[in-house]
Amino acid sequence: MPEFAVATQNLWVTYNGLTVLEDVSLEIEAGRFVGILGPNGAGKSTLLKVILGLVRPTRGRVSVFGESPDKLRRQGEALGYLPQKPLINPHFPVSVLDVVLMGRYGRIGLGRRHRPEDVRAARRHLEMVGISHLAHRPIGEISGGEQQRVFIARALCVEPRLLILDEPMISLDACAQDDLYELVYDLKGKLRLTVLMVSHDIGGVARHVNDIVCLNRRVHVHQPPPIGRIPLESTFGCSVEYLFHGEIPHRVVKVHDE
Prior knowledge:
Layout: E1 4-15, E2 18-29, E3 33-37, H1 44-52, E4 59-64, H2 69-74, E5 80-82, H3 96-101, H4 105-108, H5 116-128, H6 144-156, E6 162-166, H7 174-191, E7 194-198, H8 202-208, E8 211-216, E9 218-223, H9 229-236, E10 242-244, E11 250-252
Helix pairs in contact: 5-6
């Protein structure tokens, strides 16, 4: 039997009478790289927060490696998380190494000094993401792609089994996006991670991930790529035109009547 990193059953989330997630049932096998697609307001970030234990479902169940998110947190089994806005003020005078060390706070406690092993862990993860040479640079003086690598290193510093990335490609150019996809895929293999990534980049997701979940309040499709026009249009609620990355880039568009 496969091990499921994440399993949800008939999951509903309602805020002030507004349904954000509707009857979401998912089983995500351990070790998979999963891209989550959907329009703005589709409930993608809410689903991630339910998995992290930051939002309680209105009804239904969620388990992470067979346990509730709350129980995992009590046991000290952290999940790696990169939110949409990982640093409120990118010009705050803090070094790259200090940002990555923030990922150790759950182990050392807020207000306590970091230990030599924490610094070693931070440096090790900076090396894994290929920016150890930037350790003492201010976070605000490096590029957007380098900053995202810093935040991934911070998320990895908790030594998770599950890495959750909420739209890490925002504001990155095409080359930086491809580099980041390759990095995450390599890290998944080296560290035996399960990865959940929210993205709007349909073509990039189709090229790099193992599975795609199309979400708009409910799950419209959960399968390996490629996915066709009909599931995408049912998810996004409109005619879809997109570019697949690959040997021969091509567009897929809705057929119009003559």
